[in-house]
Amino acid sequence: MKNDARTARPRRLAFALTAAAILVGGCASVEPNNPRDPWEGYNRGMFAFNDAVDGAILKPIAYAYRDLTPKPARTCISNVFGNLNDMWSALNSFLQGRQHDFFNTLGRVLFNSTMGLGGCIDVASMNGAYAIPNDLGTTLGVWGMGSGPYFVLPFLGPSTVRDTTATVTSVATISPRTPIFAINNVPVRNTLLGIWVVDAREGLLDADEIVNRTALDRYSFIRDAYLQRRDALVNQRTGGQDSVPDYADDELPDYSDPEPAAK
Predict the structure, then answer these.
(1) Which of 80, 26, 27, 18 minimizes the C-alpha distance to 53?
(2) Element (H or E) spanning 208, and its range?
C-alpha cells in the first residue's frame, strides 16, 4: 500500500506532463486573435503545460503550506522576501532616474530591516510608506525598449520579449534572489529558494480562485491582465496614458471642506 501511495503522485505528474506536451503540439496551429500575441498557439500550449505542473505540484503544496503554517509565520516570511524585492525596486527606481521613489524605497528597506526585525514586520507600511513595485522589465521600458510579443515562459508563466530579456539578465547578474544565491551552504540555500517559491505561489491562490470563477477563457484573461498591468507600470514612469496612479508626489490634493459662501 505504501509503495502504491508513493508512486501515485509521480504517475499523476507524468500523465499531466504527457497531456500538456500533447496540448503544446496540438495548439501550435491556433490562429492568433490578438496582435500582441502572434505566438498564441505555442503560448496556449505552454500555458496548459504550466497549469498541469502547477496543479500536480505547486498548488497542492501551497494549500498545504497555508493550512499548516500559522498566519503570523506566513506573514513574516512574505515580508522578509518583500524586503528583498524592495531592494531590487530601489535599484530600478535609481536606474530610471526616479530619485523620490529610490529614497522612499531605500527608507522602507532600512526601516523594515532594523525596526521590523530583518523585514519580518512591515513597519514602513504601518506608517504609511507603502511598497513601490519596480523591476528591470519596467526599467527597459522606461529606457525605450518596446514590450514585444506576449510570451509564456516554461514554469514562470506570463511574460513578453522585453520582460524575458529582463528575467535572463537578472538571473545572470543581480536580482531579488541574489542574497540567497550568495549563500554557500547548499542545503540552506535550496531550502530558502523552495520557501520563496511556495510563498510566492501561496500569495497567488486567492487571485487564482477569482480567475477560475470569473474568466470564460483563463488564458486570455491572464494574458490581457498581465499586458495591461505591465503597460500601466511603464506609462506611469514615462508620463504616458493609461498609467496606474502615481503616489510619489510630495504634495497631496486638498480634501478639506470649502469655506461656506458669504450670505
Answers:
(1) 18
(2) helix 205-214
